[in-house]
Design brief:
InterPro entries: ATPase_dom, DUF234, P-loop_NTPase. This is ATP-binding protein. By secondary structure, this protein is α/β, with parallel strands linked by helices. The protein has a five-stranded parallel sheet with strand order 2-3-4-1-5, with helices on both faces. Helix 5 runs parallel beside helix 6, helix 9 packs across helix 16 and helix 16 runs antiparallel to helix 19. The longest helix is centred in the C-terminal third of the chain and has 25 residues.
């Protein structure tokens, strides 16, 4: 089994396992929404180890879960527990004390996958783990890993009021892969096609693995998004349902944002509800991010956007027409939503350009103290990519998801918008353009201009 990426996570888990083997019990918590690869990573990590891997199931009683856990012990550890493991356990405290006893002399890895399901999504399971860890775990060679896709519940367990607060030696949240790291899943796609694949699939390993390099972008979208039961069509509700109660109005808020509402007042107006609590929870769970204008002179109010590219695609392009797609009209829906798809693509490309600008700073192409973001003033002017050294603009950039090469006319437009920024120092800023179609010779040869294509964005340092 090969794990793509996740070197940091594997290194942390491996170091914890080595400590556990030496007699320092280790508690690790790994969480993140569904499909980010938690189970794949931990299954790989458990290979070759004396291990118990147990996945909790939805809507099962504690009685049934405990009986299943006892069965997993007997099945996975075999003869060594045949005469020791009971048919079931009366409580989770008893079950955890039992596995702690199994680790007195030999190292033991115990993974409880989807731990919040063990008590119906409440945090009291964390109190049970904490009590066992405090009172019954001393020098056992035990490593216990708890995982969960219910991000809010897991973070509540780890928070100041949670049972696992400052208990775990490893706390690792796993998010979808950023674009540059996700490239490893589809190295043979052209840069332009890969950015489109990422815009639809996000950084989810399973989604990217299902994208076929032998098919065109349109054929892949037909297969994965516009066919009844397609992976991209059905996966978003499953991901969200693990963490969000739709009665809280979360879907309305996300739908409003996908439709173009970015300011708090407009989101509330489109969602037709109070959004303070809803927006705050979406932010804490990583579904939404707040963005502020970089530097001075811009708008004071933040903008809000869906932080997950796949979920943004689903809400923007698929959600409203899911019933039509399930009814077999996917080909027509793909055509009628092409404008929304292009708008979504442009936003993903713009975010990729800002990430690329940060890598330019790290590579020494810009001053090392340059910070990168975006800038806007009311609704009159917006700068896609802004690099500041102190308060001075050193990079002013524009992103265009268009096949036609950019020209000096585009430079003039960008310079007019840059005039709204606070004035630069003695040095003039560099003007940068990221475009699918590149730039014509006159613009590319301009001494104050740098131009980049999707290939440049995806190039490794």
């Amino acid at each position: 089994m090969q794990v793509v990426g996740r070197k940091t996570e594997l290194a942390e888990l491996t170091a914890a396992w080595e400590r556990a083997r030496s007699g320092e019990p280790e508690l690790a918590v790994v969480w993140g929404r569904r499909r980010v690869g938690k189970t794949y990573l931990l299954t790989h990590f458990a290979e070759g180890k004396r291990a118990i891997y147990f996945t909790a199931t939805r809507q099962d009683s504690d009685v049934r879960q405990l009986r299943r856990f006892a069965g997993a012990l007997r099945e996975q550890l075999g003869d060594e527990v045949t005469d020791l493991a009971p048919e079931t356990f009366p409580t989770w405290e008893a079950a955890l004390r039992f596995v702690a006893g199994l680790a007195r002399t030999e190292p033991l890895l115990v993974v409880l996958d989807e731990a919040p399901r063990l008590t119906g999504g409440h945090a009291d399971f964390a109190d049970t783990v904490s009590a066992v860890w405090e009172n019954h775990v001393r020098s056992q060679r035990l490593m216990l890993v708890l995982t969960g896709s219910a991000v809010a519940v897991m973070e509540q367990m780890l928070g100041p009021q949670g049972g696992l607060h400052r208990r775990a030696s490893v706390e690792r949240r796993m998010d979808p892969f950023p674009l540059i790291d996700a490239r490893a899943f589809q190295p043979d796609l052209s840069p332009t096609d890969f950015i489109q694949a990422y815009a639809a699939c996000g950084g989810y390993p399973l989604h990217l693995a299902r994208w076929s390099p032998r098919r065109s972008v349109e054929e892949n979208l037909d297969e994965l998004a516009f066919t009844p039961g397609g992976l991209l069509l059905r996966d978003a509700p499953d991901i969200l349902s693990e963490d969000l109660d739709w009665r809280g109005g979360y879907e309305r808020v996300l739908t409003a944002m996908a439709g173009g509402a970015r300011r708090r007042s407009k989101i509330a107006g489109r969602a037709q509800q109070r959004i303070d609590y809803t927006l705050d929870r979406l932010r804490r769970a990583g579904y939404v991010r707040a963005v502020r204008a970089l530097g001075s002179g811009g708008s004071a109010d933040p903008l809000y956007e869906i932080a997950d590219d796949y979920l943004a695609y689903w809400f923007r392009v698929l959600r409203d027409d899911a019933d039509l797609i399930d009814g077999g009209q996917g080909a027509a829906v793909r055509q009628r939503t092409s404008g929304r798809w292009q708008t979504h693509l442009a936003r993903v490309f713009e975010a990729a350009a800002r990430d690329h600008a940060q890598r330019l700073v790290a590579a020494g192409a810009l001053p090392s103290d340059t910070v990168v973001g975006r800038w806007w003033k009311d609704e009159t002017v917006e700068i896609d990519v802004l690099g500041l050294t102190g308060d001075e603009p050193v990079l002013v950039g524009e992103c265009r998801w268009q096949a036609k090469p950019l020209t000096q006319r585009d430079l003039g437009d960008l310079q007019r918008r840059a005039a709204h920024l606070p004035p630069p120092g003695q040095a003039h800023p560099t003007y940068a353009f990221w475009s699918r179609g590149g730039a014509d010779d006159a613009l590319a040869g301009h001494p104050e201009v740098r131009t980049f294509t999707p290939a440049d964005i995806l190039a490794t340092a």
